[in-house]
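Researcher: We're teaching a course module on how sequence relates to structure. For the next exercise, students receive a sequence and then see the predicted structure as tokens, so they can try to spot secondary structure elements on their own. Here is the exercise chain.
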Amino acid sequence: MSKPSVSATLSQLESLLAEVERATPSPSELLTLSAPHRAGAVNLRHYLALRSHDLRPLQHALATLGLSSLGRAEGHVEATLRAVCGALRALDGRPSSEERLLGPDFVEGRSALARNAAALLGPAPSGRAVRIMVTADTSLAGDAPAVRALVERGMGILRINCAHDGPEEWTRIAGHVRAAEKATGRPCRILMDLGGPKIRTGPLSPGPPVVTWKLRRDMRGKLLVPTTVWIVPAGTRPPGPGPVLQFPADWTRGLHPGAELRFRDARDLRRTLRIAERQGEAVRAEAEQKAFVVPETRFHVSEADPGACPVGLPEPERPITLFDGDRLVLTRSLEPGRAELRDASGRLVEPGRVGCTEPALFARVRPGDRVLLDDGKFLAQAVEVHPERLELRIVRGPRPSGRLASEKGINVPDTALQLPALTEEDRRDLATVVKLADLVGMSFVQRPEDIQALRAELERLGASHLGLILKIETTHAFSAMPELLWAAMQHERAGVMIARGDLAVECGYQRLAEVQEELLWICEAAHLPAIWATQVLEGLAKNGVPSRAEVTDAAMGERAECVMLNKGPHILDAVSALDDILRRMEEHQSKKTAQLRALRSWSPRRERA
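Model: And here is the predicted structure for the students to work with:
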């Protein structure tokens, strides 16, 4: 392969540079933006002009000539192009050209992003430029020591999801954060995510009421741990996950640790529940035998038995079983849907029906559009569209079959619903959010008008000082990133959360790696901080042991300005592990640039990092 012509390569670069310069926003456009973001806005326009071309042949030519390529130009596009043009002119024996930069230089491109990140997310801890965010669990409302421990381990931002709990719990959690800041001397910001529009499946008709539980056994059948069963007064929610049995309140008050409940289950087998502890009005019992409890089951207390007590059971819904190729009907009505009907051979006779909580779906979806159900568990395609119902065909689901329940998410990546991201519930929640939060997260943002609506509401509440986080969750938001970022830069403090779970559902897991990369690049070009979110070290947080894949994924978070962890019983270990991973990676990588620290693992003295 012949060596590329220096003169021809320079000509291509000069043409690119001229196009980039023409893309510079006018002074009047820049005046509509907040002052901290004007340099980033100029650079964003330059970046979009540059990346509108396929630069692969040019990249190869520059590498062959031994020159730095354009692969790390995100934060300072024009400065990079001018620097490479200067090197090519020197190689070609031409005089250098000194012209005033319209966009940021190398130093300003790096420092502007760092300044904006500090203003939005708080100061970076010593030795680590990437902040750690943790999603709050409901239990933190009553556990101030746990919040303090998270701050001490390295959490710099606590996230409260407003789709769960309410103002009482949010206020208590926020109070614990402020107390932890004072006690530790470490800053910790509070992000409160607004719920946004929710498109979900409606209720389903109940099936036969029965409660059962599974046991965890080893390969030889030996019980590993007892199964938790919650005993609560009727109408009371249990404090944790697991099967629930409801009894009269005065009866449950008489249950004390160490007592045993005896009963015969639906198979007439003798079974026992041992009372382990009380948690307020709820009682946690432990089961060492599998059982099936039905309304007719009667329970006896072994000590001073006052007589049999009937049990109350929640009416379980009957989910819809779906095979590939099955039909499913989505209805505008939210009357309880019903499961499918099949003949003796299992052939579908009548498809299942379930409501949809968003009426706009029935006016916007077109035949052939994809409809994703239950966080992408099922991929369906619209076959028939009617004003009151959609006929879907299941293209792909769990094999050989899967079950669709109520309140499961619905995504329509091919359909522009144009729903407002700020709901009436969000507006009500903002009254509490502005009193507690440092940052407001906007869910399901898709249009600049969504951002303008939130900013107007914050201004009405006297809270324009709060930072703004755009949660990018849909393919429509991904496609509109330039316009969304421009609208965000009208706010003094703004950033982006890359919600990779929802994005994976919409764009497909095969495209997720590509999409998340492009989001990191365009945020860096705009000098806006990015948050790397969804399932980071999830195995460690939930089960205490990380997988190799999720450790690598966590290390990639070094290229963002913040990494978010979800809740779990081992969240303290996850924060410590992420802190260590990010500190190590920072010695090797900064954004896309290798730092080339000495490889201590191979040094003569065998030093270990």
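Model: If you want an answer key for the exercise: The mean pLDDT is 92. The radius of gyration is 29 Å.
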